[in-house]
Write a structure and sequence with these properties.
Blueprint: E1 17-21, H1 25-36, E2 40-44, H2 50-53, E3 58-60, E4 74-77, H3 82-94, E5 98-101, E6 114-118, E7 121-125, H4 132-146, H5 149-168, H6 172-187
Parallel strand pairs: 1-2, 1-4, 2-3, 4-5
Antiparallel strand pairs: 6-7
Helix pairs in contact: 5-6
Length: 188
Amino acid sequence: MAEKRYYMACLDLERRSCLVVGGGSVALEKVRGLLECGAHVTVVAPEVCEELRALDVEILERPYRPTDLDNRFLVIAATSRAGVNARVSRDARARSLFCNVADDPERCTFILPAVARRGPLAIAVSTSGASPALAQRLRDEAAERLLRPEVADLAERLRALRPWARTNLKTYESRRRFFASLVAEELG
């Protein structure tokens, strides 16, 4: 069988409704990542850890129901019960919803890379689900080397120039060359 290839993308989750099924430490990690990106998060689980209760999330303290998927953009199953996670995955697929099942890439329609951020910069490392520990190690090494404060500052300055470039440089190619020359000038 050929190795599965994932299409890498950055999703805009601002104000999008996301569901996390599970109330423990794995769910907490997933919820924090969603909140960091501006998602509106609902957590459903019979038991919810105190750290989750302290976050700005809607909590439904009960077992998962298929109707919990109504009007969601994506769902993450992060329970310690394989049967519940499998059910969430099946229900999400039936609705054509993006679904991640923690530690079970075969049940996922998307997987989560290890991400490091500094300002507008983000580095994501994926092993296509083969080894989250390796992805985290590589992320840390790459972040230390690449996500320096001066590079984040450069990204902010370049972002500020984008409206000017769209107005004054009429083609995509001219804008690409302009920004490439600025980056080369700053970073060598």
